[in-house]
Amino acid sequence: MISAESLRESSRLLSEARRPLLAIHVAPDGDAIGSLLSMGWALLAQGKSPTLACQDALPLRFAFLPGFEKVVQEPPPGPYDLLIVLDCSDLSRIGQVDRAIGRDIPVLNIDHHVTNTRFGTVDLVAEDAVSTTHLLYHLFRHLHQPLDERIATCLLTGLVTDTRGFRTANVTPEVLRIAVELMEAGAPLTTITRNGLDRRPLAALRLWGAGLARLQSADGIVWTTLPLSVQQTIGHDGYGDAGLANLLISAEEAHVAVVFTEQPDGDIEVGFRAVPGFDVSRIALRLGGGGHALAAGCRVPGPLEKAQRQVLALLREDLARQREQSDGGRHPQPE
Amino acid sequence: MISAESLRESSRLLSEARRPLLAIHVAPDGDAIGSLLSMGWALLAQGKSPTLACQDALPLRFAFLPGFEKVVQEPPPGPYDLLIVLDCSDLSRIGQVDRAIGRDIPVLNIDHHVTNTRFGTVDLVAEDAVSTTHLLYHLFRHLHQPLDERIATCLLTGLVTDTRGFRTANVTPEVLRIAVELMEAGAPLTTITRNGLDRRPLAALRLWGAGLARLQSADGIVWTTLPLSVQQTIGHDGYGDAGLANLLISAEEAHVAVVFTEQPDGDIEVGFRAVPGFDVSRIALRLGGGGHALAAGCRVPGPLEKAQRQVLALLREDLARQREQSDGGRHPQPE
Predict the structure, then answer these.
(1) Contact A167/B247, CB-based, under 8 Å?
(2) Residue B52 belongs to what H/E stretch?
(3) Can you tell me the ipTM of this complex?
(4) What is the pTM of this model?
(5) Fold of B4-196
(6) pLDDT tens string A152-198
(7) Could you say which of B166, B206, B276 has the minimum Cβ distance to residue A212?
(8) Which residue in the set A176, A211, A250 is minimally distant from B183, CB to CB?
C-alpha cells in the first residue's frame, strides 16, 4: 500500500518538527476529523506542540471524539515548522487556513484520494487505503506509536465513515482486522457508527423525503434535485444533500446516482455515486471537482435546471463511453 | 454464549438424522436464508439428505447465495426424521411448512431472538448471538465442519444483515473476527452488503419518500404511516415498510421510531425501533408480536388512524415507565 521510502520520509519530517500545523479540508467529514485528531494525539505523545485547524466548524455529531474541542477555525499566525495536510486531494481544500502558513515550511501530504495532486514536500498518498486514518494506522505502526483508546477511536472513525460502515468494495479482511485491533484498544464501534453514519437531524430526513419525491430515472441514472426554496422551507439549507446520493445509489435500477443541490450563492453542488464497474471521478474532475471512482462531486454554475440538463448530458455521454470501453460494449452490471 | 450441553445435544440430534427438514420463518430475511442454506450445505457435507423449506418465496436479491434455488415453498410429505427450525421465535412462524411434518419427530430449535419460546426437543438458543448464523458458526466449529466458500458466504450474510452491516450495539470484536475468518474463506463482503442491505427497487425509495413526507415527531417518538392507497399508487404494496423504520430511528430527535403499514387485509403492521437504552420488544410482545430490544414488530387490527392512536398511547405510557425505571427518572440519552 505505502512505500517504505514514503514512510521513512514522513517519519523524518515529523521527527524534525516541533510546532506542526495540522489542516483538513473544508466541509470536514469523519475521516478528515478522525485523521486530524488521531495525528494530534500522536504528536502530543511525541512531545510536539501541534495546532489543529479546520476552516469550517466541525459537525457536532463528532463531539464524542477526544480532542474535538481543541480544533480551531483560525489558527494563530505561528510560526510553524511543518504543515501536515490530511485527507485533501489538493492544497486549496484547506481553505483559509493557508493564511497562517509561513513561507518555506515543509508540507506533509497524507491522503488516499485518487485525485491527489502530490503537492507535498513528502507525499504519503495511497489510493488503495480505505481512509486517511487507514494510512495513519500504518504510519503509527511505523513510528511505534502505541494505539491508546483516544487514538484508536479517532482512527476507527475514519475507517467506518469512509467505508460507510465497511460497505465499500475496498474493504478487505485486513481492514476488518485493523477494526478488531482498534476495538480491542477501546474504540466504541457502535458510538462511532451511530454518530458518524446513522445520526441526522429530522430536517435531514425531511430533506430526503423532498428529494425522493422528485426522483427521476433513465438510462441507468437515478437523480434528483434539491432547490434552495425546498431546503429553506424544511430549514436544512447549507448542509448539502445530507447523504441523499448514497441512498439513491441503492436503487436496483441505478448505475449512477446524482443529486443536484442548489446553493445560497446560486451555484449547484453536484454529488455523484456509482456502482462498482462505473467511474464518476472522471466527470467530476472534468467539471472541476474530484473524488473516487464510486463517489465524487463538483460545483457548477446555476441555474438548477440548466446545470441539471448539462451535467446529465455529459454524464450520459461519459457512461456510454464507459460501457463501450468495458468488455466490448457489454454493460457492467451492478453486483 | 451457548452452553456446551446444548451444543452436545444438538450434535446428537443431527448425528441421528438422515432426512432432516429445515424450515425458516415467513417473510424470510438475510439471516433466515443464510441460516437455512449454510445448514443445508453442512448437512449435505455430512452425507445427509436435507430438504430446505420456506413458505414464502425468497427475495430475489439473495439469489447470489449458493443453494438459493434449492429451497422449496411446499416440501414433499416426507417422511422426515428431524425438523430443524432456524431463526424462529416460535413454531408458528414457519407457517404452512408445518403440514409436511410427521408426528413425533424431534425438533431442533436454533434461534437468537429474546422472545424465543423454547419449543424444541433441543433448543440451541442464545440471545447474545448477533444472528442465527452466529450460532451456526459455533455449532459448525463444534461439529468440526470445515467452512468452505459456500458455507462462509451464507454465514456472513446472516451476520451482516442482522447487524445492519456491523451497526448494532451487540457487535463485539469477536463478531468482526468471525467476519474476517469468513471473508478469508471466500465470503464476498461487498456483494453480501450490497444485496443484503443496500439494494432496493426504486419503488422502495419512492415509498420512503412518501413515508418521510408524512413524518411526525413528539415526546422522543418519531413515526409515520404508509396507507395502502399510497403503497398501491407507488406500486410497492405488500412488501412492508421496506426498511423505513431503520431510517426513522436515525433521527437525532428519536428515542423510538414507529412505522404503521396498512395491509391489504386491513390489518396494520407496526415496526418499532429504539436507540440503545430503550426496549421496544416489551410493547411488541404485549401487542402479540415479538423481536429484540432495539427492533421489534407486531400486527394490530385497523383502521390505520385508530391503530396509530392506540399504539402511540400505549407506547408513550411504556416509554414513560422505562424512563422512570432507568436511573430514577433521568432519561436515557441516545449515544
Answers:
(1) no
(2) strand B51-53
(3) 0.82
(4) 0.84
(5) inorganic pyrophosphatase (n-terminal core) (3.90.1640)
(6) 999 999 999 999 999 988 999 999 999 999 999 999 999 999 899 98
(7) B206
(8) A176
